[in-house]
Amino acid sequence: MFEALIIVGFGAFFAGASVASYLLVCASRIEAKAAGASYSEDSYARLLTSKRSHCPSCSKPLAFYELIPVLSYISQLGACRNCGSAIGWVSPTTEAMAGVSAVLLALAALGVPLAPPEALLTSGLLILALTLLLIFKGFLPNLKVTVGMKVNQKENKKNF
Question: Which of 43, 51, 92, 118 sits a CA distance of 20 to 30 A from 152?
Fold first, then answer.
């Protein structure tokens, strides 16, 4: 049983971190378009789905092993293999947070008594949304933080 939980945990972590990684890429590409990069409507749709990930400094396309969430950051020592430019800490941190949230959600879904799945999902999505706001807008709106915290508190009280 313990081995199965470990396998599920690794799978959930990888899935959660991968989703966060993709959302970060989408958010940065949308932000680039909003900042003035010119894209046609067709190329804008392809921008989110088909353009290969690349180093923002040297534009070298990344190999599959450079796209593994969190692990590739560690193995590359936080820098591009090609040009050596630093990779920001935001992506691996967000990926790790989403991965841990996914592990907790998976364990709760399997009946491991950690917290109710709804509370974990709400907390994880709220953390991800606030992280993206902080990254791309540079601030956290107080109203959204307060409302999100209140909703999460009510969910936790209701489920315990």
Answer: 92
